Amino acid sequence: MTSTESHSSERIRAAGLRATLQRASVLDVLALQPGHHTVETVHGWAEDLLGSMSMQATYDVLGALAEVGLVRRIETPGQPARYEARAGDNHHHFVCRTCGSTIDIDCATGAAPCLVPFELPTGFVVDEAEVTYWGQCRDCAAAPGEGSDATSPD
Which of 110, 12, 104 lies closest to 61, judged by CA? Predict the structure, then answer.
């Protein structure tokens, strides 16, 4: 067991889950591959690491890790769900309308929850704000014939 695997296992146990080899491996590959990855991509990496892992197991592991806050699930309209290791800091995302690439954007204002509504019913408490910026990434905006619909709604 590597130090990364033992660290992942410790984090999994601390979150109240049983530290299985599959869970530790998925957490490892997400930590080693920063970014926003589909289930299929994570599955491929986990299979490479373990030798064998079913797609259903990958879905189950990602779901369990997201539920306890060890990974973050990003769901944007028209895009497959993506997962990232950067969780718990209430950052936002920019999604390219053309290629679907997704990047992290730190809080728009101040610290989490970053944005608080002006009016909130009595007793309601905001602890997180989720913002998605839409547009075109640098490569797509620079491509010939692209960029003209960067602000048009889908």
Answer: 12
Residue 80: asked if its preceding bond is cis (omega within 30°), the reply is no
Taking only the tens place, the pLDDT of each residue in 32-63 is: 998 999 999 999 999 999 999 999 999 999 99
Report residue 139 as tokens.
Answer: 């490569």
Tokens of 140: 């797509």
Domains and CATH numbers, the chain: 3-74 (1.10.10.10), 89-154 (3.30.1490.190)
Would the annotation count 107 as a binding residue?
A: no
- How far, in Å, CA of 52 to CA of 57, rounded? 10
β-partners of residue 93 are 104, 132
Radius of gyration, CA atoms only, the chain: 18
Q: Which of 79, 81, 55, 66 shows the shortest CA–CA distance to 27?
A: 66
Residues 136/97, Cβ–Cβ less than 8 Å: yes
Surface-to-core class of residue 87, CB atoms within 10 Å of its CB (0-12 exposed, 13-18 middle, 19+ buried): middle
Determine if residue 137 is labeled as part of a ligand binding site: yes
**pTM for this entry:** 0.77
Chain mean position to CA 98: 19
